[in-house]
Amino acid sequence: MKLRFVAPLLTLSGIVYPAHALALWQTNGVPLSTATNHQEWPAITTDGAGGAIVAWSDKRSGIFDVYVQRVNAMGVVQWTPNGVALCTANNAQINVTIVSDDAAGAIVTWQDYRSGTNHNIYAQHVNAAGLVQWVPNGIALCTAPNDQRYPVPATDGAGGAIVAWDDLRNGDLDIYAQRINAAGVVQWMGDGVELCTQPFIQYLPAILSDSAGGAFVTWPDFRNGTDYDIYGQRVDALGSVLWADDGVPICAAAQNSAGQTMAPDDAGGAIVTWEDLRNGPDWDVFAQRIDAAGNVMWTADGEPISLALDDQFAPTIASDGAGGAIVTWEDLRAPFTGRDIYAQRINSLGAVQWTTDGVPLCVIRGVQTTPTIAPDGSNGAIVTWWDIRSNIDYDIYVQRVNASGTALWTTHGVALCVEDENQISPKIVSDGGAGAIVTWHDERSITSYDVYAQRIGPNGLVPTPVGDTPSFAGVSLSANFPNPFSDQTSMDLDLSADATVEVDVHDVAGRLVRRVRSLHASAGLHRMSFDGRDGAGRPLASVAYFYSVHTGGETRTRKLIISR
After folding, report:
1. Record: fold of 475-561
2. Rounded to two decimals, what is the model's pTM?
């Protein structure tokens, strides 16, 4: 780890951050596209360098196409103004989703009606410079008869992606998947691998990388002909299903279960959450952990996350970085305030960690709806939602909750955008430095819909040109990226005040393998990089290590993995 401080700049292994490097974001957001006509329903992923890549459906041509834009850590758009065209084929391209390519670019997937007879699944790759990598208008992942809908991608860990979707080729909706490599070559059998073709309906899959070249896929399943359950399947890098044919039950409780989402359990499995009607007439939120072999690890049919009065629904989930997860949802327990936002943490053993039925993130009057979540890198999370507390139109708000369940920012959330007209459907990704970047669909122009983004710092302040952004009290240390890595990895350190910093790297037995002693750092966000070598400059073995930052009486520790 090479560190050299030169006031007022911090240089770490040649990466330079000005002391006010976050001061270019704009109040109420940075426009990613304000092209003619509508740009709608953005999806977001990290660029691996503190910024984000955002894709959306775009009607500037008169029909919906697919466009993408990158915004860096300082709020500067990086590619063609108003976005790079990924697909401008005939007819509409909708339901756009995105995943990082792990090289500062992204793979984008969508539902495509270019045939004029049915919807199919296509994908395109854009690199870090905003250059389209595959054939114009994308690669077909599936062109089977009837409709294929709602694609969801996960990284394959090798620069490509695994994509799942629901599929009407057999008459009822089933679940299929396909892998495409970094070169744009489809890897599995034509038109995808069957994950579930049981009778009746299986629809709206969710997907998560298994960190071994394959993926976990879950879906609501009506195979019993009575109600929807939650099922899951694992598919490996070769396209072989690893669990029981047509999937394993994650929840088969009476009445309907739906709206499942997943987070990694940091042990090769996944934690799944969903909305559940078993205690009807109201919806509740449940969760279950499933291991790499397809075994459920907690109470059969899941652990309750919230059983509060009236409805709790639309849960989303993020890893807590300690083998458990944080779940957030929309909540109707207090009808006089409207819809509110709550959250709960559950540990690796299936025990909820915070107040029974969850902690409130926003309980102000009006409607707060459709939360999405990202880990904060310190065992907590950052949650965003759309909010009509103004009683006029929807705005975008955000809140951070720490590992103990305490909301850290302004009561009822920080306003990210309160422009005129509606701002809706926010999506969030970690910025790698204990903050986040949020994108949304914005109607401020009145005549059309546009796409905007905003960054929120670890302190709950938006870094704008009106002044410096002080940091959250203490020190925040991000997870390193990439991880695992071979020769170089980076991590961000955010200091609330000038401090003396010491950095250690230990092996899993606690032996010190590298130390940087007593260097002075100014307040703000700094990037460190590590070259995977010990104190004598020798390459370290390909195993796990822990890196720790000590400053101001505080220590933050993270795990890294070397894989050569």
Report:
1. Immunoglobulin-like (2.60.40)
2. 0.81
